[in-house]
Amino acid sequence: MSVTEQQRHQLFTWLEETMGSDRAATMMSLLPPVGWADVATKHDLAQLESRLDLRFETLEHKFEARLQAEITRSIRTFATLLVTSQAAVIGLITGLYVIG
């Protein structure tokens, strides 16, 4: 629940009437200012860090898997081209040998 500035003023007025202005001021100084509910705590930041670490780990695994798949595909393509070119050269040499 968020406390409004008006509610804080009413509390200060009541404290001032009940305890005096010095004690009321001391009590009010112990309360966080209005709007501090939106401020992140160390716990909030630790949770955010954990979620970001998990997200980065997931992305790293996906990247590694894609990279490995791309490397595998490239090696297969290279091997296919190498075998094909070797077969073509062997065929050419055999053809020249038969003709000559």
Model description:
This protein is an all-alpha fold and 100 residues long. It has a domain of 39 residues. Helix content is 82%, strand content 0%. The radius of gyration is 37 Å and the shape is rod-shaped. The N and C termini lie far apart (97 Å). The relative contact order is 0.05. The model has no long low-confidence stretch (mean pLDDT 91).
Keywords:
about 100 residues, mainly alpha
In short, what is this structure?
This protein is mostly helical and 100 residues long. The chain has a domain of 39 residues.
Please outline the major beta sheet: none
In percent, how helical is the residue content?
over 70%
N-to-C terminal Cα separation, in Å? 97 Å
Structural class: mainly alpha
Query: How would you state the average pLDDT, rounded?
Result: 91
Which helices and strands, and how do they pair?
Layout (H helix, E strand, L loop, with lengths): L4 H15 L1 H9 L12 H58 L1
Helix pairs in contact: 1-2
